[in-house]
Design a protein that fits this description.
Order of helices and strands: HEEEEEEEEE
Radius of gyration: 15 Å
Oligomer: single chain
Number of helices: 1
Shape: globular
Structural class: mainly beta
Strand content: over 45%
Number of strands: 9
Distance between the termini: 49 Å
Helix content: under 10%
């Protein structure tokens, strides 16, 4: 007999996700998205991040506050320098230090910039989050998502 375990939804809606985690939003430069594309190209000190735009309205580019959100496939303690590496197929490997543990499912990963530029923070979901201050290597399931305020503040 095969048993399928279904996890609960990570969010009620993009609007409620923005309301809950907006204090973790940071402004980043974004390349204009082609009309109809759900992907944003966010320019970071680690190179461009290609993220799934959770907003319904098109974005014309420049800079905007974003909340980065990913679902952790697995994590382990790390000793390597903080980084964000694309693994292909929409997957990312992120290394950083756990900031806040928000509840039994969400934690904030702080990724320090390689050249003392702006640090990046991500809201990550994992069944068993690591403790505050833990240096981790997290493998993210696709897609890495971004939430924007302009879509929810109307």
């Amino acid at each position: 007999m095969n048993v399928t375990t279904r996890r609960g939804a990570l969010e009620d809606s993009p609007e409620s996700f923005w309301e809950r985690f907006s204090s973790y939003a940071q402004s980043w430069p974004v390349s204009p998205e082609p009309m109809g594309s759900p992907m944003l190209e966010v320019l970071t000190p680690w190179g461009p991040l290609f993220v799934f735009d959770r907003a319904l309205t098109p974005f014309s580019g420049e800079e905007t506050p974003l909340i980065f959100h990913g679902q952790v496939e697995r994590w382990e303690e790390a000793t390597e320098a903080p980084t964000i590496e694309p693994l292909g197929g929409g997957r990312y490997l992120v290394r950083g230090r756990v900031g806040d543990v928000l509840d039994a499912q969400y934690f904030v990963l702080q990724v320090e910039s390689p050249n003392d530029e702006k640090n990046l923070q991500m809201i990550l979901a994992a069944p068993s989050p690591p403790g505050p201050g833990t240096p981790v290597r997290a493998y993210l399931a696709p897609p890495l998502m971004a939430f924007r305020p302009d879509a929810y503040s109307r």
